[in-house]
Amino acid sequence: MSEKIQRKKLQISKGFIYVLLAIAAFLSIFPLYWMFVMATNHNSAINSVPPAFIPGKELVTNFSNVLNTIDFFGAMWNSFVVSTITTIGVLFLCSLAGFAFAKFQFKGKNVLFLLILITMMIPPQLGLIPQYFIITELGWLNDYKAIIIPGLIDAFGIFWMRQYISSNVPDELMDAARIDGCSNFRVYWNITVPVIIPAFATLAIIKFMYVWNDFLWPLVVLREQASQTIQVALRLLIDNYVRDNGMILSGTFWATVPLIIIFIFLNRLFIQSLTEGAIKS
User: Fold this and answer.
1) Tell me, what DSSP letter sits at residue 226?
2) Closest Cα to residue 254, out of 19, 7, 79?
3) Across 102-111, 170-179, 231-240, which has the greatest mean pLDDT?
4) What is the pLDDT of residue 2?
5) What share of the chain is helix, strand, coil (3-state, %, to 5)?
6) From CA 224, how far away is CA 233, in angstroms rounded?
7) What does the DSSP assignment read for 254-276?
8) Of 2, 204, 216, 4, whose CA–CA distance to 123 is shortest?
9) Nearest to 144 by CA among 214, 92, 209, 204
10) Is the pLDDT of residue 227 over 90?
11) Taking 90 as the threshold, does the pLDDT of residue 81 lie above it?
C-alpha cells in the first residue's frame, strides 16, 4: 500500500509540475501570439472593446504598408550584418579572454577580472556621451564600425567563458597537449573550442539578440536612413497624427521572426552538443 501511495504522490507532483510548465509556456508564447493577432487585424478591430483575439485577414495589407513606409528588408539586412559580425567577434575574443583568465596565472589576474565584473554594474547609458565623442573623432559616424567595434568586448561574455572553461576543460588535457608540442593558441583552438561549443551557443543567442534589439546607440550614430538598423527604422512607422497599430505590429512581428529562427537553431545546437559530449564520455 505504501508503494501505491508513493506512486500516487509522485504522479500528483508530476502533474502539478506539468501544469506549472504549461502555464509558464502559455504566458511566454501569448505576447508573441497577441502581436501576430494585431499584425493581422485592422485598427478598428484592435481598438474595439473587447479587442480581437483571433487572427484577421489584414496580414498582407499591413505588411504592404510597412514596405511602403520604410526600407524594411534593407534595415533587416543591416541588422543581420551588424549582429552577425559582432556576435562572431564576441565569441572569439571573449573565449580567448576567458581561456586566459581560467587557465593562465599572471600578475594582477584577480584584480583585472574584478574590474571587468565591476563594469557590468555600470549602466551603458553613462558612457553614451564620451563614446559618441570618441566615435566622432575617429570619423565613424554613419559607419557600422561605430556599432561593431565597441561591442566586440563584452564583460558578461568574458565572465561566462571563464566560468565555463574553468569547470569543463581539465588541466590534465591541456598539459598533455603541451607535452605533445602544442602552443597556447593551438591548445585553445584544438582542445578548448570543441569543448565549449554549448557555451558558444548560449553566448551567441544572448549577444545576437542584444545587438539586434539595440535601439539607442544605432539611433545616435547612424543618421542616414539607408544605413539604419531595423529597430531604428521601425520608429518611422509611428506617425504623429494617425497611429496605424496594425502596420506597426506587423513590422515588429516580422522583425522578431529572425530572432526566433536564430534561437531555435542555436538551441538545437546547444542540446546536440551536450548529447554528443555525454555519448563520448
Assistant:
1) G
2) 79
3) 102-111
4) 62
5) 80, 0, 20
6) 11
7) HHHHHHHHHHHHHHHHHHHHHHH
8) 216
9) 214
10) no
11) yes
> Residues near 193 by Cβ (< 8 Å), separated by ≥ 6?
95, 200
Q: Cβ(227)–Cβ(134) under 8 Å?
A: no
- Reported confidence tier of residue 277, pLDDT bands at 50, 70, 90: very low
Q: Grid coordinates in use for 136?
A: 566622432
**Alpha-carbon span 80 to 224, nearest angstrom:** 17
Q: How far apart, in whole angstroms, are the C-alpha atoms of residue 94 and residue 101?
A: 10
Residue with cell 567595434: 149
Q: pLDDT tens across 185-207, in order?
A: 999 998 899 888 888 988 998 99
Find where cell 502533474 sits.
15
What's residue 273's pLDDT? 53
**Which DSSP string do the residues of 76-100 spell out, in sequence order?**
HHHHHHHHHHHHHHHHHHHHHHHHH
pTM here? 0.85
Q: Where are the domains of the chain?
A: 70-237
Amino acid at 205: I
Q: Cell numbers at residue 150, please?
A: 565597441
70-237 belongs to CATH 1.10.150.390: no
Expressed in angstroms, the distance from the first to the final Cα of the chain is 41
Residues 102/165, Cβ–Cβ less than 8 Å? yes
**149: buried, middle or exposed (CB in 10 Å: 19+, 13-18, 0-12)?**
middle
Which residues lie below 8 Å from residue 267, measured CB to CB, with a gap of 6+?
A: 201, 205
Over residues 49-60, the pLDDT tens digits come to 777 788 888 888
Count the neighbouring beta carbons within 10 Å of the beta carbon of residue 135: 20
